[in-house]
Automatic annotation (TrEMBL):
The organism's place on the tree of life at top rank: Eukaryota
Main location: secreted
Family membership: Belongs to the secretoglobin family.
Pfam name, any one: Uteroglobin
Name recorded for this polypeptide: Secretoglobin family 1A member 1
GO cellular component: extracellular region
Keywords of the record: Secreted, Signal
GO MF annotation list: steroid binding
Record's keyword annotation contains Signal: yes
Keyword hit for Transmembrane helix: no
């Protein structure tokens, strides 16, 4: 999978937590779980902020896709790029 594809999937996954009051730690935790965590841990994180069955099904599908398609290098590159963006943005 290309890096652009990885970033697109990650951005889609981040949409599940937009209602969080403390967005930066939630983004950081969710990004880390999405890319590096277990499938179950990621779904539990999404469930903290949204219990809609359609959202959970989509999160499950996205996480499965990332786990199957991205290489460890793709995941690390994406994580490095996004963590830098989260901390340098005006959100934090």
């Amino acid at each position: 999978m290309t890096r652009a594809g990885a970033l697109l999937l990650l951005c889609a996954a981040l949409l599940f937590i937009v209602e969080c009051d403390d967005i930066c730690p939630a983004l950081r935790d969710t990004v880390d779980l999405f890319l590096s965590g277990s499938h179950e841990a990621y779904i539990e994180q999404v469930e903290k902020y949204n219990q809609n069955s359609d959202v959970l099904e989509t999160a499950d599908t996205l996480k499965s896709c990332v786990d199957e398609k991205l290489t460890p290098e793709d995941k690390q590159d994406t994580l490095s790029a996004l963590v830098g963006q989260i901390y340098s943005s005006s959100l934090c």
